[in-house]
Amino acid sequence: MEDRINLEDNQEDILSHPSRKNVIHILTLDSILANDVYERIHNDERMKYYQLIKPRKTEIREAVTEIDSMAVDTVLSRLLIIDVRRVTLPKLQRAYNKVVGYNRRDLNKLCHTILIGDGPFDLFQTGKTLDAFVPHLATHRVDFHPAVFFYDPFIHYEHSEIERAGVDDEFVLPDKIPRRLVRFFKKDEDVRVDKIRHYFRAIDKPEEVCKKRRKKLRDLYKKRIAEQFPHHKEQLKAWLSRKGIRLASEKMHLYPLYFEDWVYNLMQKAMQS
Fold it and tell me: What pTM did the predictor assign?
């Protein structure tokens, strides 16, 4: 069973690609997340002229094929933004294997990787602490060599929240936010993922409104995490900051807090290499 990236399969592809452009590849089967990432970067004045490439297909099988075919083109990019959530990772393993293989020599030099993902499957079981993230992050470190990992609470679902259907065990990504987060919104509010993402993105709003919504999201995260992990107050402060939290040798951030800043800084770093 192939459940880990095998770099050995792509040894012939491990070359340096110095002729990279101001291109960012967004690799995910989630069109809502892809659009959120795209809009956040495109509407940042510092990065409005970067070329952003994301999958066009929305049907799962077609999107998997498209991402696989995009792998060779990632050697043009200075930044790869990769969705590594547990439920879709097995379907994209082959494509991600190619992406890492093609770019391996340049990672953290001419090209950087940002991972966006959920947490370990047992994160919310009674008695769990933030240390549950350590082996989860370590695995991604080995497989992807990321510059930064963003944990996204809005894509962390319990097993019962993932819909499966059909003889091929095909699935559809949930269009509602995780149940544990619903109570933080008004009862008469639509809790569809796309609407929530658009609300917090607030790219069509005045800066004052944007700041208020960023604070709302930060406060939501703070309250939820403090409830779940009451003995990690100091770590929670770091997790909510631009610096992020350090767990053993791994660092982790919360999507989308300071996401645009990380994208900009990593692009600048890649350009200077």
Answer: 0.91
